[in-house]
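User: Fold this; tokens only.

Assistant: Input:
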Amino acid sequence: MDNKSSVTSLMSAFVRAYHAQVSENPVFYDSFARRLISDGEYEGMKKHISAGMDFFAPEKKGLFKSPEDALEWLVNTQLAPTVLARARFCEDALRTAVMTGTSQYVIIGAGLDTFAWREPELMKRLTVFEVDYPLTQEDKKKRLAEAGLEAPDGLHFVPVDLSKEDLAAALMAAGFDSSEKTFFGWFGVSYYLTGQQIERMLEAISGFACEGSTLAFDFPDEGLFSSETARVKNMLAMAAAGGEPMKFSASDEQLSSMLEKHSFLVYELLDTQAIDERYFACRDDALDAFENISYALAVIKGTQFINTKEKILLTALRLFAKRGYEAVSVRDIAGRLGITQAALYKHYKNKRDIFESILKRMESDDAERSRRFEVPDGNTPRYEKVCLENIGRFATAQFEYWTQNAFAADFRRMLTLEQYSSPEMSALYRQYVSGGILDYMSEIFSASPPEGSNGKTPEQLALEFYAPLYMLISVYDTARDKSKITASAKKHVEDFLNCMKGTE
């Protein structure tokens, strides 16, 4: 049996199960992982981890109030950070991809992943392919049977030895549709491969997946092998002792170049600090991002020219969102991409040209959603009557777009930083985030007065409708549980519409 793979997947499942049981504020909540682990295995892993204090942190031995406290500290510092954060990163990105038309999800090295059982609503919109080593996958099927869990509709098991067999052929045989946009999750693997092996996987995926498909994965940064951090050294030592030494590390620039070579556009890169800020802020349970580990999100694009130009645009916007528009120079953008300023100028005349391209993208996205939900695009001189249900669907889609779409979220963060820097930025913030939306909703309610408005003016209705959404957008980025914020927004829209229809 592929014992290394099965042991790794079992330990990851244990971490997810343990975290779900002991954490009051889970980074990633897996309600099914525990069901795939027998009681004997679960208790055995707890004892095995507890016995590792001498290896991981001998200086802390005897400092904890109880064995349970010591175990939780060991799990949270040594095992859980990467397992939890990368699962959250992957599935957050997947949800965004589904919003933009992705209909297939391929989990490469699925192990004891439980997505198909945890997410019944997403399963209605996705076909899922779990790819894994044949014997490892058989072990999972046995565990599922013992837990009384049947494979849901839309889930396909794809047993394949990737060291010998062709991924594309195996997926096609399982019903994969190469014409459908697909999300590929590939985690916990790149560490143990050479750069050439990673490139072969990138070449394989971009060779059969359609344009617009997404790849999410984790990788070690360039400081991995020289790190002086104790737990990084421990990780390297354990991998070597287990007969599977870590081989790969890369800087952001090196990784971006590798991806671009195979028609992937880097959409998002999270380093240790960014992972810590996104998933582990304001915690008191010793969980923090594992050093020298980064996450990448990349999208298949058609040509080198499109890839490079789009990459410049997204990189610039990420920098604007982090530092502010005025604080970023063309040199900063080119440097972040690892290209010369002259190369950048082949695509954009100057920084202002990049900024105007960002605005055009936002205007185009807004117009497209307005058409899709049959609401005014904001430029209509006189608003016509709008169906109340369309308003609700549009508002929910807008909330998800502004919080979960990486481009829109960075644009919003940039405007939030820059709103006091110039009249132009102030006007854009008002247009896209604050008062402009109130004006827009007032116009809609003026043209289409809801039956349950009870004499309230369009301005009052607009304020009651949008103010809670504005507040929820404002707190979304720093929220520990972003799914709760999204759920609150959807509930507010639903309650408001029911009130306007007189059903409450």
